[in-house]
Design a protein that fits this description.
4 helices; 22 strands; 8-stranded antiparallel beta barrel; 38% strand
């Protein structure tokens, strides 16, 4: 099946569509919501997520904020705001939609579960510009959109909104329009209970939510480095807390001057944590092999390629190729032998400047035990 990204006439006309936090919008990827029921506005909205607009800002200018900045995102401590496993299951049961969904991020459909599990559930604390994606007659149709403050999203390790939880729609950063934005609201918008704010600006079509004005829209910039922990605002507790990356909630109270440390026993860091080691370069692989008939050893030269610290790595060696999967403390590789599947492990023992210099591991299969040592010899 071929999936096409379609450029719409709306883009040429500069239309930007307002998407309320508690509505799926037109042509969602899923008819199901993966976000919890929308709550009334919180008692303590907290500090503003962005500086006040500059008085001399150019008309139509939108503020951009780094995804690692404190206060860009919020949430409820020890509670998720997105049923990520529900989205994974839904896409697994709908392969056509899964292929279309995966095409937005240029990943194979079988990588969707791992891709989603690396994301982190948060709430947007300001109206935010994005590129949303609809599913229309088997095609992916992108559109420029503004997500309402309070929208539940999954963000990636650089703080970029990546999935809209209410609809399951994939998100990308916004793109520049050829003309000034023309904001379009839902035709039959009903504000959530308790919503307050000034009357929204007049739109080209439809209605906006209370308080909507283009000068308060933000764009979330890609963080310059991987985010190891998010500082979120809990509007119901009226305070900050820490959230570690991943769809499994691992939160800690915020304490001034205390550096958060992932608790022992917590799920392993998702792929791409800057605190994780990086398996890349050329390694001298030495294997000690014990068999029922005796002991011997061999040596190989192995080349490892990986996109980032704590990511899966691709092996190319004179003994074959394969994928080593990051599992938190190290990597595993699953293959096959005459007597069944075999899983090899590799755990870093020496890391310099974030790159694995030495690692040990091995496997046991068919009454054969292999202990391996890898030593990095170059790039």
């Amino acid at each position: 099946m071929t999936v096409y990204l379609v450029t719409t006439a709306a883009d040429q006309q500069g239309e930007v569509f307002l998407e309320p936090a508690a509505a799926s919008g037109d042509d969602p990827f899923s008819p199901n919501s993966f976000a919890p029921p929308q709550q009334p506005p919180p008692p303590d909205p907290g500090p503003p997520p962005a500086p006040a607009p500059q008085a001399d800002a150019a008309p139509g200018a939108i503020q951009s904020i780094d995804g690692s900045e404190s206060g860009v995102f919020g949430g409820t401590m020890n509670q998720t705001t997105c049923d990520a496993e529900g989205l994974i299951n839904y896409l697994g049961q709908n392969p056509d939609r899964a292929r279309a969904w995966a095409s937005v991020f240029r990943i194979p459909p079988d990588q969707i579960p791992a891709f989603i599990r690396d994301l982190t559930p948060v709430l947007l604390r300001a109206d935010t510009r994005v590129t949303d994606h609809q599913y229309v007659n088997g095609r992916v149709v992108p559109k420029q959109a503004v997500l309402e403050q309070g929208t539940a999203v999954l963000v990636n390790k650089f703080g970029e909104p990546t999935v809209r939880c209410y609809s399951g729609n994939p998100l990308l950063p916004p793109v520049a329009l050829p003309v000034a934005p023309a904001y379009v609201g839902p035709a039959n918008y009903v504000p959530r209970p308790g919503a307050t704010g000034a009357a929204p600006v007049v739109l080209v079509r439809g209605e906006g939510w209370p308080g909507f004005t283009p000068t308060r829209i933000i764009v979330i910039r890609t963080a310059l480095r991987i985010i190891d922990v998010f500082r979120l605002w809990d509007p119901f507790l009226g305070g900050w807390f820490w959230r570690f990356p991943g769809i499994v909630i691992v939160d800690l109270p915020f304490v001034v001057g205390v550096v958060p440390v992932r608790p022992p026993g917590a799920p392993p860091r998702p792929q791409g944590s800057s605190a994780a080691p990086w398996l890349r370069g050329t390694y001298a692989e030495h294997n000690e092999i014990q068999t029922p008939g005796g002991h011997y050893s061999n040596d190989h030269v192995t080349k490892m390629a990986s996109d980032c610290p704590g990511c899966n790595a691709t092996e190319v060696s004179d003994s074959g190729t394969g994928i080593w999967q990051w599992n938190g403390p190290g990597w595993t590789h699953t293959g096959s032998a005459q007597c069944g599947p075999v899983t090899s492990t590799l755990t870093p023992t020496v890391v310099v400047n974030g790159i694995v210099q030495e690692a040990t591991g091995g496997f046991t299969v068919c009454d054969v035990t292999v202990s391996t040592t890898w030593t990095r010899t170059g790039d």
